[in-house]
Amino acid sequence: MAFSMHSHSGQFCPGHAKDTLEEVVQSAISHGMQTFALTEHMPRDSDDDMYPDEVSTAPLRPRHERFLIEAAKLREKYAGKIKILIGFEGEWIRPCYAGLMKELASNPVIDFYIGSVHHVHAIPIDYDVVFYRKAREVAGGSDERLFEDYFDAQFEMLNALKPRVVGHLDLIRLLSDEPNRDLREIKGVWEKVVRNLKVIIEQGGLVEVNTSGLRKGLKEPYPTRSVCEEFLGMGGMLTLSDDSHGIAHVGTNYERGIEYLESLEVKELYALDGKNGDMKSQVSVRSVTLASIRKSFKA
């Protein structure tokens, strides 16, 4: 059963992604996806948190509401072809965002949200090298210090929100000087990684193997091998995501991602099940064999 727990569209993330939400769903079906989560970025509520291509954060909340309406329509329209989950990707910019995320998650149409960190010291760390280096200077001038601060922010997010899915756990690697470095080599960072993995285990969360890292030039998906090995050794549950930003990305590098998982001797992954029309129910977790993903996925 091919699936993805993380996706975006240009319709509701303009400038950040491409194509309409329905086109993304249609692409997922064409690639043999049987479960697909629609998880546009959550609205931010402060103009201090705008990206360079944005004028104001004011339109973001109304756009989020339109996304939920469209996603619900598509879930019903394509119910016979694909199981659609509706969620959003969280933004942990500062602790006050916990309240906004919980408010957004209270909408009964929402199945789950992804717990992600894209900012450290309120500065985006995956937007471009300029922003990354600015965050690094604030953190003390080294990748190691910024990595530590990133995983501390992630720790805060985990404890405040207990997300069902943790997004691109080691995203901080992307624009660093040595993005493919084994995190075990950096003692202070590794201790924080292990601490966070233990929290995720305790909370029953899923860590996504996110293949977007491959299309962005990394040698391995998020998270890197050492992190996956540690998490699996703890009994942790991995899920799978393409983190697509339009139809060109749906299922991108899934074949390489499957090979990566096979090299880790992974036999099964885990996916969330939707509420199946019962808006008051909670989503459950189901196991999916890696062999069935390989069999059903269409490149």
Automatic annotation (TrEMBL):
Enzyme class: hydrolase
Superkingdom in the source lineage: Eukaryota
Coiled coil: none
Aminoacyl-tRNA synthetase keyword on record: no
GO CC terms of this entry: cytoplasm
Pathway(s) the chain acts in: Amino-acid biosynthesis; L-histidine biosynthesis; L-histidine from 5-phospho-alpha-D-ribose 1-diphosphate: step 8/9
Domain PHP: residue ranges: 5-212
Enzyme Commission (EC) number: 3.1.3.15
Cited Pfam families: PHP
GO biological process: L-histidine biosynthetic process
Keyword vocabulary terms for this entry: Amino-acid biosynthesis, Histidine biosynthesis, Hydrolase
Gene3D superfamilies: Metal-dependent hydrolases (3.20.20.140)
Reaction catalyzed: L-histidinol phosphate + H2O = L-histidinol + phosphate
GO MF term (any one): histidinol-phosphatase activity
PANTHER family referenced in this protein's UniProt entry, alphabetically: HISTIDINOL PHOSPHATASE-RELATED, HISTIDINOL-PHOSPHATASE
Entry-linked NCBIfam families: hisJ_fam (TIGR01856)
Family per record: Belongs to the PHP hydrolase family. HisK subfamily.
UniProt protein name: Histidinol-phosphatase
